[in-house]
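Task card 7
Instruction: Convert sequence to structure tokens.
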Amino acid sequence: MRESAHVHKVLIANRSEIAVRAIRACRELGLQTVSVYPYEDRNSLHRNAADESYQIGEPGHPVRAYLDVDGIIDVARECGADAVYPGYGFLAENAGLARACERAGLTFVGPPAEVLDWTGNKATAIATARKAGVPVLDSTDPSSDLDALAEEGGQMRFPLFVKAVAGGGGRGMRLVDDPAHLRDALAAAS
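Output:
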């Protein structure tokens, strides 16, 4: 958050338990809360727990609604929020949201966009950590060549995780205990 900003109303750009926890924390700090929800989440707890709530997105595309930076910024402006909190998942590692908040004069509750640029991509994050002298786990360079990845990964200590370099909400992450299952895990995470 910007040090000079005094926050009164926070738009929570997330859903479910993540949003409810953020709402609770805001209340403890005396802050008003705004939730957003797609049509499919119209009966969700986070919608009803916030001081205000606004429907976003188009019916039939609930995930897309939570990823709509422009729509979230529009709601924040319309309702008078002065901060946006992304929670985790969805837009939490999105430098575009941090920049959009800055352009709109909103406080982004999270790391600066420059930090998100470094950390939002696993390969960039590892390279930045190595450059700074931070110890990191063994990893391969990003590649779409499954044979090369299987060869390189097969030389590492097991168990290991296979994960898409640009994320995917953890859905593509695979724990591999046995080198014999590495190629299948790579294909599944691609």
